[in-house]
Amino acid sequence: MEIEIATIGGYEEVGRQMTAVRAGDDVVVFDMGLNLSKVLIHDNVETERMHSLDLIDMGAIPDDRVMSDLEGDVKAIVPTHGHLDHIGAISKLAHRYDAPIVATPFTIELVKQQIKSEEKFGVQNDLKKMEAGETMSIGDKNELEFVNVTHSIIDAINPVLHTPEGAIVYGLDKRMDHTPVIGDPIDMERFREIGREGEGVLCYIEDCTNAGKKGRTPSESVARRHLKDVMYSLEDYDGGIVATTFSSHIARVTSLVEFAEDIGRQPVLLGRSMEKYSGTAERLDFVDFPDDLGMYGHRKSVDRTFKRIMNEGKENFLPIVTGHQGEPRAMLTRMGRGETPYEIDDGDKVIFSARVIPEPTNEGQRYQSEKLLGMQGARIYDDIHVSGHLNKEGHYEMLDALQPQNIIPAHQDLSGFSDYVNLCESEGYKMGRDLHVTRNGNLIQLVE
Ligand SMILES: [Zn+2]
Fold first, then answer.
1. What distance in angstroms lies between residue 306's CA and the mean position of ligand 1's atoms?
2. Right CATH number for 220-381 from 3.30.70.2330, 3.40.50.10710, 3.30.1850.10, 3.40.1350.10?
3. What is the whole-number distance in angstroms between the Cα of residue 170 and the centre of ligand 1?
4. Domain 3-216+388-447 classified CATH 3.60.15.10?
5. Which residues are known binding-site members for Zn(2+)?
6. Which residues form the Metallo-beta-lactamase domain (predicted)?
7. How much distance in Å is there from the Cα of 109 to the middle of ligand 1?
8. Is the pTM higher than 0.90?
9. Ordered DSSP codes for 164-223
10. Cα of 175 to ligand 1 centre, how many Å?
């Protein structure tokens, strides 16, 4: 059976991930992501109303025109998890393919919301839920399987396409977490089985984000303990405490909510995306928040809540807000600019349960946000976080488990691939032979 891989997006950047695998006549698409930094750099761009081709020209969504060179039918579109760089282009591209979107329940729900807010295209693809551990047939000869992985968002999987020539494992995005705060540990046992059964692993497509970092990525339970240490140390503080983190990071939000109550403060989630992700997780029963946990997204209800907090005494509350990267329109940035009814006093604490995404725009915006907060007297606690991506030792472990015959580095640009390339070469792989460094828009034929 002919096996061909189209590396469509996310091979020259972090963002707009998209890869297609053709096995005989069947094609499966993994991820359709958005490169948010290409959108945010322009003022007032509303992607909801934009045409795909304009977004492709901006570099915001994958240029999927290479798909016409693949001789097969798309049988499934498979987003691996709910981060925007993996699902953000579905509303712009999926309608071109007559195929269902197959994902885990939390991811499907986020895809559904995204399709709903789309204003240019009517996306009619079937939405099909599939849990980790389940499989579905792709045509007569291939099978799709979801393997449970751990990442900075719940319900993440690595999809595996089993073909007569061996398995194709799509490895984006994960960390090796054996004690995640929510959900099951990464299913390493299944990865080891896949590496040893049948024809083995024909190809492994891997996220290189942290391949240059030594050691292993700590578990989410480590970030949780760090956060607990910081928050418990503030138990006797009788002024304002504000916290921020990734809205989609449900495990972290849960820890913040829990520790707020432990130190005698009422948690409240503020900001549009805080309401969106936490509300969705609660509706789908991934979390069990306290009944009286307030979640407010709209500007008016947020400001009303801030007024209530000021009236009832801010020492009784812990607002958990958007703005961990200093995004100009996010809640914490507005608080820093003094645009909300919440007044920050000398000595008040601001907890960043996040790391700055190492990108000049983020670094500048976060710097500005911290300065503004500092000018009002805020004290900053930052970097209470662990990464969602594998470090070096995790990568070695994955190669050992899967023993792949071919490797395609992904989720980076060329310079970002280099550490992973060195790591693979130290394990006996060779560039141009079984280690395929590629760019957006290329086809790699693995079996002729
Ligand atoms: Zn991710």
1. 31
2. 3.40.50.10710
3. 13
4. yes
5. 81, 83, 85-86, 151, 173, 411
6. 15-226
7. 16
8. yes
9. TTEEEEE--S-B--SS-SSSPPP-HHHHHHHHHSTT-EEEEEEE-TTTTS-S-PPPHHHH
10. 10
